[in-house]
Structure formats: structure tokens, C-alpha cells
Specification:
With 374 residues, this protein is α/β, with parallel strands linked by helices. It is built from 14 helices and 13 strands. The chain has helices spanning 12-15, 26-33, 54-63, 76-86, 99-110, 126-133, 150-156, 179-193, 217-223, 251-260, 268-278, 281-304, 324-333, 357-372; strands at residues 41-42, 93-96, 116-120, 137-141, 161-167, 198-202, 227-232, 245-248, 309-310, 316-320, 336-337, 339-340, 349-353. It has a 7-stranded mixed beta sheet, sandwiched between helices. A 4-stranded antiparallel beta sheet has the order 9-10-13-12, with helices on one face. Helix 3 (54-63) packs antiparallel against helix 11 (268-278), helix 4 packs parallel to helix 11 and helix 12 (281-304) runs parallel beside helix 14 (357-372). The structure holds pyridoxal-5'-phosphate.
Length: 374
């Protein structure tokens, strides 16, 4: 035995990963600052401020009677609900433990050492994490106006590129690429690279788009065999704690993902709740409306405070506050949790999840007080 065995032997690409920085949990802040958890507001993780839909809670509790059994590994009922709602065959659907899982499955199925993935600067951080975990090369393309520069991303695709990640709307910046531009990109990728390059269109915030911004991305899945569209139940559907998402792609790509998927990746409670939530149009409409009003409330306040912000298409707003680390600390002292985004290359900015009206007000009052202090 020699001393050289005294370090864990991980591949260099794993040791190099900077772990995901999640929004601070309410209980943790309460412990750290000696605050009453009930007095804390969390606007840090793009969760739904309405809580989970009552319909989903009931369905989940009913399913809680059969937890000794493994979940349905094929998610038959959930997939048939999705199939009906989106008009695609069940064989085109992959269920995920959150849509994060779908992103991981794409990386697991397609990336390896010697391959690369393309994504945008300031895009969702999981694209980098999933790529790095496979030992693949990541090609980060500079953002344009805080959003995806699809022209530059097209040019950045290399001979070894197998995946392009696009978040639309993007997190943490809230930017949005209109449908014609995405479609043109898909056509350009096909013309140049055929099916060698898979495009992941991550639509985690799709349900917050205004009606005139909406488009049928699932129709593109029918046209492009190298496209996968991912959606989540974590945001507008209010089920972040249960972890459900899904991807829609043609059968050949879906089959590849299924090969690397854990058999029971979506649990029984999550499947039951998702089926109910997906059909709860009333809840979704309320979530959309509340978000629209909350966004206006925050943006008006930022205008009044003369703070720059990025017009948002999601359920959060990215705002430039200057010394974001200090302002974040001052907000925490006042029991307000938001998200610093220095790790996303935005050290002067904070990302604020849109909350209930009184939560937005609490945040605005705290921020105003901090900015006006001598
Ligand atoms: C929140 C988010 C997701 C995934 O969330 P899940 O809870 O894993 O479904 C995916 N993409 C983006 C851009 C997000 O902001």
C-alpha cells in the first residue's frame, strides 16, 4: 500500500465541474439569520407562487395508497394524457424526473469524450453540467442582448458537435426567440448537418408566453427527426417538488433516450399529480394571469428605481442592481430570498421570481430601502 491511494480517483472532467447553485431554502435562511420561517419570502427558484394545484394534490394523495409497488416504468396513463393533449403518439414521449432529467438523458445518450455540445452564454446552467459530466467539450457562444445568437450558434457547430441546447424562453435572462427564427435555425442545421446534430428545444417556461407569441413546436418534431422539445411540470403547473418533465421526439431519438433512462425515473405520486395538473386548465390560466400582473408590478418598480432589466418572457425578471452580492445579502437579512447569477456570468444582476402580489411588494420595499440607504 502506498500513500498515492489516499485520493479518490475521479475523471478530470468530473473534478472540473462547478456544482449547481440552487436557490437558498427557506429553512436554511431561517437558521442562518435567526428569522421566523413564516416571515421569509422565496423568489429564487422560479416556483409557482400559487402552490400546487388542488386537483393534483388530491390525485397524489389517492395514489399514496399504493407506494409499496414500483411506479409504472412506462408511465402509460401520463403518456396517454400527454399524447391526447399534444397530438403525438405515446412512442414519441420520454418522461423525466423533472425536465432536467430529459436534458441529462440527451447528454447520456449522445455525448462522450471527443464529442461536443453547443449552447449560449447565460443559458440554463444544466447544459454545461450535463455536457461536462460526459467528458464532452462545451462550446459556449457569446449571447446577443442577453439572449441566444442563433446565427453565431449555427457557425459554432463543429465536426464533433452532437447536441445544441436552446432554452426558449431562457433562464436566467428571460429572453425569447420568436418562432420563425427557431424554424429557420432548424432548417439550417438540417441543411448543413442532417441528423448528426440533435437540437434540444427547452421550453420550461412555454406556458407563460402570451397567446400571440405561442407556436406549435411539436409540429416541428414531426418535421425534424433531430429535434427534441422538453417541457416541465415544475413551473406553471406548480409541481417542482414532485419532479416531472417530458420530452417529445421522433421514435428513433426517443428510443436512444429510453436506453439510458432509469426504469423507474418518474415516481408514482409524480405521475398521478401530473395527469391531474395537465388537465387543470383553470389553474394554468390563473398562474398565467398572476404572472402577467406580477411581471408588470416588478417592471414598474424597476422603472421607478431606474434599474435596467431584461424584458422577460418567463416567471422571473433579471435586474441589474450593481453590487449584486451586497444587495443580495441585505435582502437576505430582510427575509427575502432571490437568486444571484454571478455564476451565469452576470455579477451585477439578480434574478427575481415573480411571486404573489404581497410578496412582490415585500421585495420591492426591501430593495428600495437598500438602494436608498446612504
Ligand atoms: C427550471 C428549468 C428546467 C427544469 O426544471 P425541472 O424542474 O427539472 O423540470 C429546465 N430548463 C430551464 C431553462 C429551466 O429554467
Amino acid at each position: 500500500m502506498t500513500d498515492t491511494n489516499n485520493t479518490l480517483a475521479a475523471p478530470a472532467h468530473v473534478s472540473a465541474i462547478a456544482p449547481y447553485q440552487a436557490g437558498k431554502p427557506i429553512e436554511e435562511l431561517a437558521r442562518e439569520f435567526g428569522l421566523d420561517p413564516a416571515s421569509i419570502i422565496k423568489l429564487a427558484s422560479n416556483e409557482n407562487p400559487l402552490g400546487m394545484p388542488e386537483s393534483a394534490r388530491k390525485a397524489m394523495l389517492a395514489a399514496a395508497t399504493s407506494l409499496a409497488r414500483y411506479p409504472d416504468p412506462n408511465g402509460f396513463e401520463l403518456k396517454s394524457t400527454l399524447s391526447r393533449l399534444y397530438g403525438v403518439p405515446m412512442e414519441w414521449i420520454t418522461l423525466g424526473n423533472g425536465s432536467n432529467d430529459i436534458l441529462e438523458l440527451v447528454a447520456l445518450a449522445l455525448l462522450e469524450k471527443g464529442a461536443s455540445a453547443v449552447y449560449s452564454q447565460h443559458a440554463f446552467v444544466v447544459y454545461r453540467l450535463a455536457t461536462q459530466a460526459r467528458g464532452a467539450r462545451h462550446i459556449m457562444v457569446p449571447a446577443r442582448d442577453y439572449g441566444h445568437d442563433l446565427d453565431a450558434m449555427l457557425e459554432a457547430i463543429a465536426d464533433d458537435t452532437r447536441v445544441v441546447f436552446i432554452a426558449n424562453p431562457n433562464n436566467p435572462t428571460g429572453t425569447f426567440v420568436p418562432a420563425p427564427r427557431i424554424q429557420a435555425f432548424l432548417e439550417q442545421v438540417r441543411a448543413r448537418h442532417g441528423q448528426r446534430v440533435v437540437v434540444v428545444l427547452d421550453e420550461a417556461y412555454n406556458e407563460y408566453l402570451d397567446p400571440e407569441q405561442r407556436f406549435d413546436s411539436v409540429a416541428w418534431v414531426r418535421e425534424f427527426p433531430n429535434l427534441i422539445v422538453s417541457r416541465t411540470l415544475s413551473k406553471a403547473y406548480g409541481l417542482a417538488g414532485l419532479r416531472v418533465g417530458f420530452g417529445t421526439a421522433q421514435p428513433a431519438l426517443t428510443d436512444l433516450l429510453n436506453r439510458v433512462r432509469q426504469p423507474f425515473n418518474v415516481n408514482t405520486l409524480a405521475q398521478a399529480a401530473a395527469i391531474a395538473a395537465l388537465q387543470d386548465k383553470e389553474f394554468l390560466a390563473r398562474a398565467y394571469q398572476l404572472n402577467k400582473e406580477g411581471k408588470a408590478q416588478l417592471c414598474q418598480a424597476f422603472d421607478a428605481l431606474k434599474l435596467q432589466y431584461v424584458p422577460s418572457y418567463g416567471n422571473f425578471v433579471l435586474v441589474r442592481v450593481g453590487d449584486a452580492a451586497r444587495i443580495n445579502l441585505e435582502l437576505l437579512k430582510r427575509g427575502v430570498i432571490v437568486r444571484p447569477v454571478a455564476g451565469d456570468g452576470l455579477p451585477e444582476w439578480l434574478r427575481i421570481t415573480i411571486g404573489l402580489p404581497h410578496e412582490n411588494t415585500r421585495f420591492i420595499e426591501a430593495l428600495t430601502e437598500i438602494l436608498r440607504a446612504p
